[in-house]
Design brief:
This protein is of the alpha+beta class. It contains three helices and seven strands. Bound molecules: coenzyme A. Coenzyme A (COA) binds next to strand 4, helix 2 and helix 3.
């Protein structure tokens, strides 16, 4: 599996939108807020198939105004699921966060994925990860 860490830009946005569409995911984003950089931007962890070089999944993170890292979207194409790709992506995010708290939003379909990586469910519908 190849993972590329890319800044969000028009080209990356198009790749991610195509992946969301191909995955059939009806994405539920947190409500828009003028002070929160959640709707766009941030950093994308993009995954490609090693053989075909095709893009097969991504995870988008943003730096929140409180100094932690938010996982805004994570998506893997259906034919590549249950092979540990999302787990690897989130693991890379945790390592890149270098001890900062990582919060995953809108994880209703992925509790086991996040719990297996040490995330705990908070009262709000998010998962958070402390490395300490
Ligand atoms: C959720 C998603 C990203 C998981 O991607 P993935 O690469 O298949 O995940 P992994 O292979 O790393 O799975 C890790 C663990 O998560 C859990 N898991 C993953 N998909 C699951 C599913 N559909 N139902 C129940 N548990 C699931 C399992 O415990 C799995 O471990 P296992 O395969 O050893 O049982 C993928 O299914 C997807 O893109 N879904 C649509 C988009 C979406 O809902 N994103 C938000 C998720 S919070």
């Amino acid at each position: 599996m190849i993972i590329e860490i890319r800044k969000y830009n028009r080209k990356v946005q198009t790749i991610c939108e195509r992946l969301i569409e191909a995955s059939g995911w009806e994405i539920a984003r947190p409500p828009a807020h003028p002070n929160l950089p959640t709707q766009q931007g941030g950093t994308i962890f993009l995954t490609r198939d090693e053989l075909t070089k095709k893009y097969i999944g991504f995870c988008r993170i943003v730096n929140s105004p409180w100094g932690d890292i938010w996982i805004m979207e994570i998506c893997v194409l259906p034919e590549y699921r249950r092979q540990g790709i999302a787990t690897t992506l989130v693991d890379k995010v945790i390592k890149a966060a270098k001890g900062k708290v990582v919060i995953a939003w809108g994880v209703d379909k992925g509790p086991k994925l996040f719990e297996a990586l040490g995330f705990r469910l908070s009262k709000a519908p998010v998962y958070f990860h402390h490395t300490n």
